[in-house]
Amino acid sequence: MCSGSPSGHSHGLTAKHMTNYRDEAPQVLCDFLSYHETIKAHSQKTVDEYFLDLRNFFRYMKQARDPALRDKPWDEISILDVDVAFIRSITLTDIYGYLTYLSRDRAQQPNSDRTEYGLSATTRARKIATLRSFFNYLTQKAHLLEVNPVKDLDSPKLMKTLPKYLTLDESMELLESVDGTNSERDYCILTLFLNCGLRISELIGLNLSDIQDDALRVLGKGNKVRIVYLNDACKDALSYYLDVRRPISGRDQNALFLSSRDQRISRSTVHALVKKHLARAGLDTEPGRAFTQLCYPGAAYIPAPEAQSQEADHGE
Questions:
Q1: Which of 22, 177, 247, 256 is the most buried (most CB within 10 A)?
Q2: 38 and 133 fall within a common domain
Q3: Rounded Cα–Cα distance for residues 148 and 22 (Å)
Q4: Cα separation values, 49 from 42, 132, 193, 284, 294, Å
Q5: Domain containing 29: what range?
Q6: Pairing state of beta strands 225-229 and 211-212?
Q7: Residues 127 and 39 in one domain
């Protein structure tokens, strides 16, 4: 158990899991997690994922080394006795064994009776990244290890695919298709996606206070802030939306984009509205379409449909 952790202190995981790493983690793991939470300023979600990955790894190691634990339920294996001496004994061969377990035997849905087994290369690569971060911390920051067992560890080879972006004409067709309930909100969301290349998590996290004249303050991955400058199409779309955005009170009163229930718009709602308008425009709605970064590559300015029409008329 972590030193100095208050009894009953809830940290990290959702209430569904009712897990508190400060109660379940040995001190060396607590120190690592605290380093990422305080010094590296990683999000609570990232720290929780580190804990779950490393708890899983240590449970595997204990079960692989102790025959008495072979038949013990996975979630009953405590890792509180894992210390520096135990970690120091871990070799690259042990880690290859763990990766084989993840690839062949790890349940994809541990709480389901109908689960399939073997994790994807992408999931295994994330777990390797956690191990690499942990052992790098022990050797380079905490100086508790002299030999890093993952120094020469390769990540699984991932299939690289290019995202399917909309063309300029498709982008215009998409904007022209927006109509009906919440049309100003949806139009504004799509315009920001197309012109600014925001991640969906960045868009749903926008607040009214993030609008700064001709720019947006965007909170990205790792709690890093960047400024995105807005072109005329974005400023017009924001203006039209803000004219009809209803004022609300409560927790989400500062949220830029609201749902029909007067709450901050959710990821699933944005996915649904993008898919709906893509279908209405007669465009591709298969999963390969880049929903999370629906942007026109290299485009600095995608005008509103009416503005494009006026520009064409002027050119004649």
A1: 256
A2: yes
A3: 25
A4: 11, 14, 28, 33, 27
A5: 21-141
A6: unpaired
A7: yes
Pair 311, 174 in one domain: yes
Residue 24: pLDDT over 50: yes
| 34, 40, 46, 52: CA torsion to nearest 10 | -40
Integer angstrom CA distances of residue 148 from 87, 127, 129:
10, 16, 14
The percent of residues above 70 in pLDDT, for the chain, comes to: 75
Counts of helices then strands in the chain (DSSP H, E): 12, 3
pTM beyond 0.85? no
The DSSP symbol for 5 reads P
Predicted local distance difference test score (pLDDT) of residue 284? 61
Model confidence at 217, in pLDDT bands (50, 70, 90)?
very high
Question: What is the number of domains present in the chain?
Answer: 2
Q: What are the tens digits of pLDDT across the range 260-309?
A: 999 999 999 998 898 888 888 887 655 444 444 455 444 434 555 554 44
Q: Do 175 and 254 belong together in one domain?
A: yes
Q: Are 208 and 254 in contact (CB under 8 A)?
A: yes
Q: How far apart are CA 267 and CA 264, in angstroms?
A: 10
Residue 74 lies in a domain: yes
Per-residue pLDDT at 42 exceeds 70? yes
Average confidence score pLDDT of the chain: 80
Same domain, yes or no, for 229 and 300? yes
Q: Extract the tokens encoding 242.
A: 């803000």
Tokens of 28: 């060396």
Considering only the C-alpha atoms of the chain, give the largest distance between any 2 of them, rounded to a whole number of Å.
83
Predicted pLDDT of residue 160:
60
The per-residue pLDDT for 287 is 43
Strand order in the sheet with 225-229: 211-212, 215-219, 225-229
Q: CB–CB of 150/132 below 8 Å?
A: yes
Query: What's the length of the chain?
Result: 316
